[in-house]
């Protein structure tokens, strides 16, 4: 089930949120702690105003809520609201036998016993879930994984506690995000969404239902994803998931915030991930875990696509072709013969090799000069300090491969002293925002602009072919876009 958390301060606001999201959800959570005091007196009537089951919740501040009164008054408010036709009431697991609990049992309202941990995960999470379930209540564990290893623990819940039929388990924050989407693989009976997030990692109901189609996941669903750090900003789910739907392929594509590639591959084996896109900073870190690599990966030393092939992982690099494709005409007609590449990370490796393989003279500038020197020696390119970028204003092509300028760092410019000229081509690999500060300067100078979002879509379509064996649906290509900032 997909549960919409209602965050309005009035009954009317909550009804509006409900109507706006009705087609995407299966039940709602009515947060009376978020209501104005003047609206709380009408709370018991709310279930009769909607046509879905309602969870009654009054969350105290220590559990991420807004209720500021005494515990006695909170209990009294819950008890009075239970005159309404609620399907569930959420009561924290440390609240002992209360009047609200007794009233809920009398009225046959199911009790959810919740535990919220915004700093980590309890070491005895399996025991806590079993203990609550043994009393006939529905256990809810909303915890905050601090690593992929913690996420693995969450995904173990389904098999370790298979005898607990009804349970709610979710991870908050960046590491926990996949558990919100793959909630069925965690063994959770529902996942939470909200128009306005009231807990770390919540997304809209429309996104959960239409982009991820999370409620359609079953045992046959192929799991794909993108791994990086950070990664939740990635546009890749908006390429891959509509593509899967477009060819009726039973698959889901999810972002995984990864601190340890080794831990991720343990998770991948555990939940049978079929393939992943790889982004910063893991494009080189994944190489030791690959049983087979393509010629481009061997040459570049960087991998952005990993696919399960029989009993091993195969690595390919679609960045190479996605990057160079729009440059080929200008390279062939000699309009582009020299390039300045900003950065020396995983993305830069694909860029430099692609340009060198097509005969371009390349200079790499990077804050860490040793990294620039290392890449330059491999590729027979030149190198220099990032501070000296302005000395190369004569080049035909400037390629920006770092994360500088990416949201939320959108006011930064990696080469602020560089003066562009109108006969240059400027290629920005950052795609959010579409116009970075550097690219906006290049636009004002009359440069030809190439955008990171276009490269992302090109390489994403190639990844789609690696994942599915099918071409990306042509009818969907026009729908791939990014709002301009």
Secondary structure layout plus pairing:
Blueprint: E1 2-6, H1 11-21, E2 27-31, H2 37-40, E3 54-57, H3 71-81, E4 88-92, H4 99-106, E5 110-116, H5 125-134, E6 138-143, H6 148-160, E7 168-171, H7 173-181, H8 183-186, E8 191-193, H9 205-211, E9 222-228, H10 237-246, E10 251-257, H11 261-270, E11 273-278, E12 292-293, H12 295-300, E13 305-309, E14 312-316, H13 319-324, H14 328-332, E15 338-342, H15 346-357, E16 361-366, H16 369-379, E17 382-385, E18 397-400, E19 425-428, H17 437-444, E20 448-450, H18 452-468, H19 474-477
Parallel strand pairs: 1-2, 1-8, 2-3, 3-4, 4-5, 5-6, 6-7, 9-10, 9-11, 12-14, 15-16, 15-18, 16-17, 18-19, 19-20
Antiparallel strand pairs: 11-13, 13-14
Task: Give a description of the structure.
The structure is a single chain. An 8-stranded parallel sheet has the order 7-6-5-4-3-2-1-8. The chain is elongated, with a radius of gyration of 26 Å. It has 19 helices and 20 strands. With 485 residues, it is of the alpha/beta class. Helix 10 packs across helix 18.
